[in-house]
């Protein structure tokens, strides 16, 4: 596994796979061909089907130059490596300078066809599964925060930036009202939820409020942190900052919660997927809920086994969750789903803390099942907006 830094990417929403990664790829291609007089970009798979709603064409054109860029939505061809493929071509004086095939594999990450799909060039963690990590921690008598600290040097400095960015996004979401971009005319709800929270305070109201604030900012193309993706970026900050503000958890401890959440997301990213286009929403909201539940269990004083159990419960109860965004935009069901998953994370942590941590299905098993289930899901339920709620 590589650094958890690569899981928490800071950038503009609404989609890590459909906007963040394509923008990154376009920037890389532009650096290689700044003098090209024409760019042709072909989008495949879910990028071709829901790219318009997710602003994929918009960010690519904006990055390469509106006038000299043509986008083709190729609905006929697809790649087995990953559905989200992009083919960039640069031309000068009618001569093709380069053809580049690149894949957006989830959470803002890019991969080329000759790269291993799941492994990274920069692996720094010696263990690959939660079971291996728990055994190591037991042997070394350390907790999961100490584990991350040992193998991911300087991660706390980066997580300070993540903390600041998440905080700013929540503040912006709470102070912005109106309608979100797109045909659905979805009304922002975070400010009114916040008002209701202030009138009659409860932890669950604060969870909903903070999740909505981030998810609405994401839907409007604001800056968010992928946790693990843009579409699911409201769950982890909702739990962390609601714990900070309602239960008075210190900033230092919140950073440690990010370490735990990042470790969980990383294990899933390495062994399964965090891409809605590949495994459905279980790989986005399900993973976010699992990450948040683990952090929450840590705040509540859970030991390594109870944290693992909380993460397992949260993911298990999202198995099979489909990705079917209405009108191809990250709004319905995505925004509400962030708020409900934040509340579920809290329940998963509470439940796990009422046990000794011993349980039947391991986190690693659920990760494996999530991957299998995701591959068994029909394409219409994997960010193509051709089935489920999107077809109603
Ligand atoms: S339904 Fe889930 S996976 Fe699909 S776009 Fe929305 S948040 Fe992402």
Topology summary:
Elements: E1 10-12, H1 16-32, E2 38-44, H2 45-50, H3 56-64, E3 69-74, E4 85-92, E5 95-106, E6 109-111, H4 130-140, H5 144-151, H6 155-174, H7 190-199, H8 203-219, E7 223-225, H9 235-247, H10 251-271, H11 276-279, H12 285-299, H13 304-316, H14 334-353, H15 363-376
Parallel strand pairs: 2-3
Antiparallel strand pairs: 1-7, 2-4, 4-5, 5-6
Helix pairs in contact: 1-3, 5-10, 6-8, 6-10, 7-8, 8-9, 8-14, 9-10, 9-12, 9-14, 10-12, 12-13, 12-14, 13-14, 13-15
Strand order of the largest sheet: 3-2-4-5-6
- Write the CATH architecture name of the largest domain: Orthogonal Bundle
The major β-sheet equals: 5 strands, mixed
Average pLDDT works out at: 96
Helix content: 40-55%
Number of domains: 2
Ends: how far apart? 40 Å
Q: Beta-sheet strand percentage?
A: 5-15%
> Hetero groups bound?
iron/sulfur cluster
SS-based class: alpha+beta
* Element-by-element helix/strand order: EHEHHEEEEHHHHHEHHHHHHH
List keywords for this structure.
two-stranded antiparallel ribbon; 60s Ribosomal Protein L30, Chain: A; single chain; 2-methylcitrate dehydratase PrpD; binds iron/sulfur cluster; globular; alpha+beta; five-stranded mixed sheet; 51% helix
Describe this structure in words.
The protein is of the alpha+beta class. The chain has 2 domains: 14-111, D-3-phosphoglycerate dehydrogenase, domain 3 (60s Ribosomal Protein L30, Chain: A, 2-Layer Sandwich); 130-391, 2-methylcitrate dehydratase PrpD (Orthogonal Bundle). The protein is 51% helix and 11% strand. It has 15 helices and 7 strands. The protein has helices at residues 16-32, 45-50, 56-64, 130-140, 144-151, 155-174, 190-199, 203-219, 235-247, 251-271, 276-279, 285-299, 304-316, 334-353, 363-376, and strands at residues 10-12, 38-44, 69-74, 85-92, 95-106, 109-111, 223-225. The protein has a 5-stranded mixed beta sheet with strand order 3-2-4-5-6. A two-stranded antiparallel ribbon has the order 1-7. Strand 5 (95-106) and strand 6 (109-111) form a beta hairpin. Helix 9 packs across helix 14 and helix 13 (304-316) packs antiparallel against helix 14 (334-353). Iron/sulfur cluster is lined by residues 231-232, 276, 281, 284-285, 323, 325, 330, 333-334, 337, 383. Residues 231-232, 276, 281, 284-285, 323, 325, 330, 333-334, 337, 383 line the site of iron/sulfur cluster.
């Amino acid at each position: 596994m590589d650094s958890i830094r690569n899981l928490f990417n800071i950038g503009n929403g609404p989609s890590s796979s459909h906007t963040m990664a394509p923008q990154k790829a376009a920037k890389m291609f532009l650096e290689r061909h700044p003098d090209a007089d024409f760019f042709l970009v072909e989008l495949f798979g879910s990028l071709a089907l829901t790219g318009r709603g997710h602003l994929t064409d918009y960010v690519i054109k904006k990055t390469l130059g509106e006038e000299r860029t043509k986008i083709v939505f190729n609905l006929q061809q697809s790649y087995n490596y990953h559905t989200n493929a992009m083919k960039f071509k640069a031309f000068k004086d009618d001569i093709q300078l380069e053809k580049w095939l690149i894949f957006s594999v989830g959470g803002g990450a890019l991969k080329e066809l000759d790269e291993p799909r799941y492994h990274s060039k920069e692996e720094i963690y010696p263990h690959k599964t939660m079971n291996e990590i728990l055994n190591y921690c037991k042997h070394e008598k350390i907790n999961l925060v100490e584990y991350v600290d040992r193998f991911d040097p300087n991660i706390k400095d980066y997580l300070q930036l993540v903390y600041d960015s998440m905080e700013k996004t929540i503040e912006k979401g709470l102070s912005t009202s109106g309608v979100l971009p797109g045909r659905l005319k979805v009304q922002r709800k975070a400010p009114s939820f916040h008002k209701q929270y202030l009138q009659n305070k409860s932890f669950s109201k604060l969870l909903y409020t903070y999740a909505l604030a981030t998810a609405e900012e994401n839907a409007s193309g604001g800056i968010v942190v992928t946790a693990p993706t843009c579409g699911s970026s409201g769950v982890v900050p909702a739990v962390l900052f609601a714990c900070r503000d309602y239960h008075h958890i210190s900033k230092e401890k919140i950073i440690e919660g990010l370490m735990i959440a990042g470790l969980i997301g990383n294990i899933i990213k390495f062994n399964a997927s965090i891409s809605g286009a590949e495994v459905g929403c279980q790989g986005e909201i399900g993973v976010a809920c699992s990450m948040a539940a683990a952090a929450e269990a840590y705040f509540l004083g859970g030991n390594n086994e109870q944290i693992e159990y909380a993460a397992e419960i949260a993911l298990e109860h999202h198995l099979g969750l489909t990705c079917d965004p209405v009108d191809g935009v990250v709004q319905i069901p995505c925004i509400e789903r962030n708020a409900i998953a934040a509340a579920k994370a809290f329940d998963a942590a509470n439940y796990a803390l009422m046990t000794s941590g011993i349980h039947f299905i391991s986190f690693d098993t659920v990760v494996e099942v999530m991957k299998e289930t995701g591959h068994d899901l029909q394409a219409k339920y994997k960010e193509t907006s051709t089935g489920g709620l999107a077809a109603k």
